[in-house]
Design goal:
The protein starts with a helix and ends in a 22-residue tail after the last strand. By secondary structure, the protein is α+β, with helices and mostly antiparallel strands. The protein is 25% helix and 28% strand. The longest helix has 24 residues. The strands form four sheets. Strands 3, 4, 5, 6, 11, 12, 13, 14 and 15 form a nine-stranded mixed beta sheet that branches. A hairpin with a 4-residue loop joins strand 9 and strand 10. It is globular. The structure holds FE2/S2 (inorganic) cluster.
Amino acid sequence: MDAGDKMQLPPSSQSFWLDSTAKTDYPALDEDIQVDAAIIGGGLVGITTAWLLKKEGLKVAVLEADRICQGTTGHSTAKITSQHNLIYEQIYTKFGRELAGQYADANETAVKVMAELIKEHNIDCDFQWKPAYVYTLQDKYVEKIEREAETAALLGIKADYLEKLELPFSVKAAVRFADQAQFHPRKYVLALAQLIPGAGCQIYEETAVTGLEEGRRHTIQTSIGKKIRAERVINASHFPIHDGLGFFFGRMYADRSYILGVITPDKLPEGMYVSAESPGRSLRTQKYKGGEMLLVAGEDHKTAQGVTEDTHYRNLRDFAGANFTISAIPYRWSAQDYTTADNVPYIGQVRSGAENLYLATGFRKWGISTSTVSALLLRDLIVKGKSPWQDIYSPQRKITPAAVGQLVLQNLDVAKELIAGKLKSPATESIKEGEGKVFAIEGHKLGAHRAETGQLHLVDVTCTHLGCELKWNSAEKTWDCPCHGSRFSYEGDVVDGPALKPLQHLPEGSNVIDPDII
Ligand code: FES
């Protein structure tokens, strides 16, 4: 293998977590059922919440549109940490000591609870205790990092300020959190999932939720025509499927990030690292084929607003190559996350008066510990009527003036995308294999993608959520929405919400027409 081959990116996106675990085969719902709690979404939040509620004696159904743990959890960097980049000083300033303390306590507890669950059930999931670091290469972040270390320590976290790290590049400053961990997220979730069926509980795969009617008992409609009546419903689907008039699509924005699995003969870093500044850079190791693989992540940008082609993956590869000898890059994959206006997730009752209707969303890039925080918090709300962390995470909390400013900026972005999509003049040249472009045909915007087979796939590129114009994502071969982050396959199927409906196809048989001919 010559040096160029070693730097070669994999031809397609494939998460290591998915590639190294077996597929699941839970049944689809085949009859109308009645349960104490229905959980929409079979990721880490859904499965952990289901397990905790089952232990409390509730009959629980988990409804997953596809297969469990294939979405966000199956594409994360899988760090179990209360360190969420630089957050503690920010929330201490915005919310005060008590609420910042709730955030710290919730996440420190989540790390411990996950370690205990792994021990209790003997889950083989590559769990390793590791310190977590946020570092900076820039002078302007040094003071922020110093304050982060002080604030986190004040809130009870074992946090230290450092000026040197054991990395192949020098840093200006870093904050270290002790007693954090990393693991293989799918091995963990699949093992927990096995504990759920039985005693009136079940996981249903390939059972997409298409509607929810609120009532004393809520009624959930599914894609296969069967209904679930449930006393409580928990939206654990990354982006809430049932908005419940919480207008969450206007209170969050979506962004994407990228991960490479890199093999190197060099000494690997001992902890988990993330940069404070942009472009984001993150490093951790993972057990791989009797040795270890380095996971290099970062390059985050708002969904559908990044640079084109595979630039993000190439930037990560160049960063890895500048600091480590690369022997091979067996994996590349990407992730999508949602961020709230004030950077604190929404976990709890959807809105005031929405009896027994809960959600957990807006985890930013810190979904592993936050998923467990969500499961513990929702379990406590359901079983005890209250949680020690309910105030900081309340979906009904008032947002601060600074957060309002951020929301306005985000919504200006959305308005800009809605208008820009309608005004731009379309390209009309032909499309090469692997490319995607937008064309205007008799006033309709169509997205065209030519597959490697030469077949042309045409879809209506008006987002089925609120009508923004979709953009082609050449790295993932998807149509992405710049407004609230919905994503669709090139055949039009929903990959990520809030959209629920697929894109319109051109009629059967006409999806192989060349746009030049049209
Ligand atoms: Fe809201 Fe597309 S996700 S308009």
